[in-house]
Amino acid sequence: MTNEPHGAPPQGVLERLSAALGSEAGRRGPPPVERWNPDYCGEIPMRIAADGTWHYNGSPIGRPALVRLFASILRRDPDGRTVLVTPVERVGIEVEDAPFLAVEMAVEGEGDGRSIAFRTNVDDLVPLDGDHPLRFERDAEGGLKPYLRVRGDLWALVTRSLTYDLVELGEEREDGGELWFGLPAGGRFHRIMPAADLS
Questions:
Q1: What is the pTM of this model?
Q2: Is the domain of 91 the same as that of 130?
């Protein structure tokens, strides 16, 4: 079990983090976590599983409102550590894949003028645009894994069913002197893979 400074076990850490937010918890939009720089207080036994489920001390957190609260104070620091941050405390947590899942997609229009927006598993609404691009990776079996930037260096894994929907919207296009398969949306072409890699 990870201990807090001075050897105290992390009892009540969820309550402490909630209390530290104070009035921030009721504000609209995410708290200004990028401006907060409290001391790092070590890791707590919190984990975000690959399926998007949040766990504390090995048990799922069953209250969606509490998960949304903690998701709102999530940040990825420059050293690669994922932390929960309040004005007075910063604690590390484990993330198995991505901290969020993109679970719903709305599409309007066609071609480069197409607008796409996603809803995450914690109810963030994220447009596909220059500030919220897609990136594509391969899983261990060679399958496509798209990620959407939510904020800062926090990304949402696009669910498999939405991945199929994205691929259906794709097209081949020359980009940078090469032929790519990609997704035109938000005024730009989002590269998925070289066209030669299509099977």
A1: 0.82
A2: no
Q: Are 54 and 5 in contact (CB under 8 A)?
A: no
Whether 189 and 180 have beta carbons less than 8 Å apart is answered as yes
Q: What share of the chain is helix, strand, coil (3-state, %, to 5)?
A: 25, 45, 35
CATH number at residue 142: 2.30.270.10
Q: How is the beta sheet containing 188-194 ordered, strand by strand?
A: 171-175, 178-185, 188-194
Tally Cβ neighbours within 10 Å of residue 165.
13
Q: At residue 73, what are phi and psi to the nearest 5 degrees? A: -110, 20
Q: pLDDT tens for residues 113-132?
A: 899 999 999 999 999 988 99
**Cβ(15)–Cβ(82) below 8 Å:** no
